[in-house]
Structures are given as structure tokens and as C-alpha cells.
Amino acid sequence: MRQSYDFNDLFIFEMANNHQGDVQHGLKIIREMGSAARDHGVRAAVKFQFRDLDSFIHPDFRDASEPKHIQRFLSTELTLDAFGVMFDEVRAQGMLTMCTPFDERSVDHIEAMGFDIIKVASASCQDWPLLERISEANLPVIVSTGGQDIASIDNISSFCHHRGIDHALMHCVALYPTPDAHCQLNQIDRLSERYRDTTIGWSTHEAPDDTDVVIAAYAKGARIFEKHVGVIDGPVTALNAYSATPEQVRAWLAAYQKAVALCGNDIHDTHHTQAERDALAALQRGVYARAPLTAGQEIGLDDVFFAMPLHDGQLISGRFKAGTVVNQEVEAQGVIDEGATDIPSDPDRKVIQSSLHQIKAMLNEARIPLNSDFKVEYSHHHGVENFREIGAVLIDVVNRSYCKKIVAQLPGQYHPAHFHKLKDETFIVVYGTLHLEVDGHHKILSPGETAVVQPGVWHHFWTETGVIFEEISSTHKNDDSFYKDKRINRMPRADRKTIVDHWGRFTLGDKNDSRDEIWTPRRPAADEPAPSDAEDEETGAATVDP
């Protein structure tokens, strides 16, 4: 299958009619843009505009002065051979070729010349005869959306998807030049959210000296950038109010590169440099002995104090826990080295609390709202202390003749192999990536993808990225799960499952010192069916909850 076209980080130098109908002037523009693109290391395209003027302009209006564009188009008309010379120079400069057709015959010329990309102008965004012809060209398409309401953008987005066109959308304001108050860069956010699998760009018509807008547009998520360009040379003594000279283009590209540096990469985790860590360490507190300590002594808050500076290898204040054991003598006011201490493990409640916070954050990031009445179940098949490695979080949404659960796993979590005798379930991934093995078949599911797990089929799953998926099934029964790992089957239900109502707001004690909060998991209610001790005849596995 053909891979989708990668529109990301593409710069479009729009020549329009700035060639002035002079091939040599057009070549100078192309060479200047090629030099700027190379110097700044960007991927660039030069864009032409094609109009079959014999048919595009009504014969009765060829001498008309209004609209002003008629005489502008006629006075700068070039032959196809002339465009061919400029086309070859774009390729020679290492740039992509791109063209906007304004009529169907121009699409014929684009195909014949072998352009790389077609651009749909905002004025043609609802020109369906032209769009139908463009869809037949089998080329990637970038669509400008100037002046279009959201329903119109929906239409053309759906049109491109239905026709199998690799496409991108450009936020555009058809004012030349565009005042700051009309740039409406928040529209980039909306387009990015509404068309999540589509690259969004910014077709810029602001004053060419303004380099702030490209920084904001990149920060908003634009990944294609278009600007009208030209050169001042010979009889051309000035450009229009929205076209940039080579010097202005270079400043524009430099501003873009600054935006990239300011925003950082697109991965979820922030990269922290050693310099940043050192700067923070210079302001943090270390743990010091209040009085002399002996090797093997268990210490609490009364035995230590926290102060700066923090020394290399010293136990930091945030890592200290009551019950820590020092393994060497420490003099009064001396440094307590972390490597010479045994720090107690987090209690079960801390494992659950920290995981709960992360799961809530994942749901927020995935924009998955929950009702005010739900139950959260932590399945910790190998004990709470190993929950971050083996387990899952199940949020009960409804359990009637049908059942829906939201299942979440933290990065690196694994759910052991099991099957259900009665339950027929479907997994629908909504966030992250799920690795699922069903009856020996390994599947990797991304958001929107589904998998059916039939009764009696062994399955287990895990995630490297963190995952949230919906489990849609027949009624959940407590005695309808069978695990391969017999240790899980022998565990009392309360040891392998912690149940919290509505994130445990009233389950966790509220004390001044959060380290002393009382963890009181809700035990299964008396009327909840207990797991059966009977073993399956084929597997010898006792029935337990998932």
C-alpha cells in the first residue's frame, strides 16, 4: 500500500504573478529561494499558478478594468514552455514543484509536466467541477481554507478522504496583507483537533517584515508555511504589501527555526539537560544528622534536619522516609549519603495513590470524561507492590445485560493470560498502543482499532506507551475468569483487587501529613458473589476476577 505523503515542515514559496511575465525574473526568484532554503536547511517548494486565460476570462471582459485581476493576469501571462524552463530550475535548486490550477485544463498541464503537489486556492475551495478534476490527478493536495466556514471545510476534508487523496489543510485569511487582529491563529488549534490525521498549515499574508506570526503559528501546531515571494530587480522597484524579498524570507525562516527550538520536540516527556538538573540541585535541600548516628540505626524526623547545600550522593529531602536505616556512622550535622541508607518501600496505599494520579492524568489527556458515579478496580495480580509491572485499572461504567468498562494500563504494565467461559468482549483502543495476544496471535492496536475476544479464548495484553481502551461485553460475572498462573487463582480476591469509589476521595484519610494518610480499600460487598473454588476441568484454574 502506498504510504501517505509527508507534508510536515514544508515551506511553500508562492511566486503567483511576481515573475511579471518575464522568465528571467522568475528564474532569479527561484534561485534566491533555493539559496535561502539551503542555507536554512528547510524542505521547500516553489508554487506557480496556472490559468487557461482563453477560457478562464470571459471573452467579453478581456478588456475590462474590473476586477483588477483580469489585466494583471493578462499582462503577466507566460507560455507553458516558459513555465517549463522555470519548472526545471526549481528542480535544479533541489526544491519541490507545486502549482495551483484555477480551471480543469490547467490540471491537464500539471499532470503533463509532472508537478509534485497540487494546491487548491481558497477561492476554489468549493469549486466542485475543478475539485473533481484535481481528484483524478493522483497527486498530493494542499487546500487553503480562507473564507470557509467549518461546514465547508468538513465537506472538502470528507471529499479528499472519500477520493483517497493525500491532503493537508491550510488555515488562511484572504486579506492582503492580513492585519494582526484578523490572523485568527486559534483556528489552527481547531483544525488540528477536528482533523487529527491531517497536517495543518498556515498560509501567511501578514506584512513581510513581521516574523512573530510564524513563531505563533508553529507553536499552535502549523507544520506547513506558505508565503508570497519576489525580488526587487531591474524594472521591479517594489513588491506588493504581502510579498517578501529574499532578505525577508531568510528572516522568516530564522524565526521559524527559533520557534522550533523554543517549542522543543513533539514527544510527551520533556527532555531535561544536566545543566537544568544541576541548577535545581543548587537550590534543593539535603538530609543532615541532627545528632550523631550509629550504623544500623533506624531514623525518623526527629533525628535529621533538611538544609542546603545538597552534596553529590546525599539523600535529598524529598526522598527521606521515617524508618530509614543508616548503614554507617554519621557525625552531628553530617551528610547522610543515600547510598549508605536503606529506605523503606512505599506502602501499598502510596503505590495506588501515585498510580491513581497518573491514570487520571491519562484520562484527561485523552479527553475521556467520566460520570460522577463510578467504581475503580485495581487488579494487582502479583501484589500491590508489583502493580506498576503487572496489573490494570478497570473503571466500571455499566454492568447490565451488557457491560462497559474503561481499562487503563500504565507504560510497561502487563495483564496475565486468562479466558472467560461466558463473557464475549470487544476491545476498542482510544489512547496509546495496546499489545494483545489472542489465542497465540499477536496484535498491535492503535486508537480506533478493535479486537474481539470470544469466550474460551486465552488472551493477555500489555502496553509500552500506556493505553486506555473500552471493553464492551456481555454481563461481567465474578466467577467467569480463568488464569494460567495458578498463583493468581489461589489468591483471595481482596489481595489481588483494590476497589475505590470515585477515585477514593472519601476512602483515603485526610490528615495534615500526606505520608500518614490511612489507606482503607473498599472490600467486596457481602452480596457480591465470591470467586468459585471449583476448577475448570481442562485447565485446573480456579475462577477469579480479571
What would the average pLDDT be, to the nearest integer? 89
Number of helices: 14
Which CATH architecture of the largest domain would you pick? Alpha-Beta Barrel
For the termini, the CA-CA separation is 39 Å
Helicity level: 25-40%
Give unreliable regions as ranges.
508-546
The CATH superfamily of the largest domain appears as: Aldolase class I
Domain Cupin type-2: 410-465
Region (Disordered): 508-546
GO molecular function: N-acylneuraminate-9-phosphate synthase activity
Organism: Salinisphaera japonica YTM-1
Please specify the SSE layout and strand pairing.
Layout: E1 10-14, H1 23-40, E2 43-50, H2 53-56, H3 69-75, H4 80-92, E3 96-101, H5 104-113, E4 117-120, H6 128-135, E5 141-144, H7 150-162, E6 167-172, H8 186-194, E7 199-204, H9 212-220, E8 224-228, H10 246-263, H11 274-281, E9 286-289, E10 298-299, E11 304-307, E12 324-326, E13 341-342, H12 348-365, E14 375-379, E15 392-399, E16 402-409, E17 414-419, E18 425-432, E19 434-438, E20 441-445, E21 450-453, E22 459-462, E23 467-474, E24 482-483, H13 486-490, H14 493-496, E25 497-501
Parallel strand pairs: 1-2, 1-8, 2-3, 3-4, 4-5, 5-6, 6-7, 7-8
Antiparallel strand pairs: 9-11, 10-12, 12-13, 14-15, 14-25, 15-16, 16-23, 17-22, 17-24, 18-21, 18-23, 19-20, 19-22
Helix pairs in contact: 1-4, 1-10, 9-10
